[in-house]
Amino acid sequence: MFWQTFLYHAGRLFTYGLIGVLFGIIGKGLYLSGFQQRLSIVIGILMILTVVTPSTILNKLNITKPLYSSIGKVKFKLGLYLKKKSNKAIFTIGFLNGFLPCGLVYMAVLGAISSGDITTSAFYMILFGAGTIPMMTGAVFLGNFLKLSIRNKIQKAIPIFVIIIGLLFILRGMGLGIPYISPSDAKLHLSNNPNTCITK
Fold it and tell me: Is residue 111 over pLDDT 70?
């Protein structure tokens, strides 16, 4: 059971790493274009809006509708591997599960884009996946022992943490000069003045 759990989470982390690389490339392009600071603010606002906006309004927007066909294919393949018990199948189940839509994954992707670096973005997503391991593993082994009230409290706490993270992204983009929280944006700006370039 321990080995299968390890393989499953290894598959998930591998997927999150790939997602981090993909969105890290996008974020790096935005960083080189000089949008890094404003992007951090926009992402923070989006995080907060996704939490405070009623789900009925979000459902009407059909934001994820274009992805439904791809998600359907992932679920179909996932169903095939769920019937198998080999190590390869367990790893593949975790790998495919990493592509399934999840609100917290969307939040992590927004953070990955704002990193402005491919390696940092991939590492960010892997750390995000690692952070979900205790809760997911506990849900499997202790799900039936946790009281419904405790599970409801955990669900209610998630949006609060998302809002806090969103506020941190906004502060980071404002460049207020606060160490670690809102560092100065002086190093984020790219110069268009040829006189500032040093040539040998």
Answer: yes
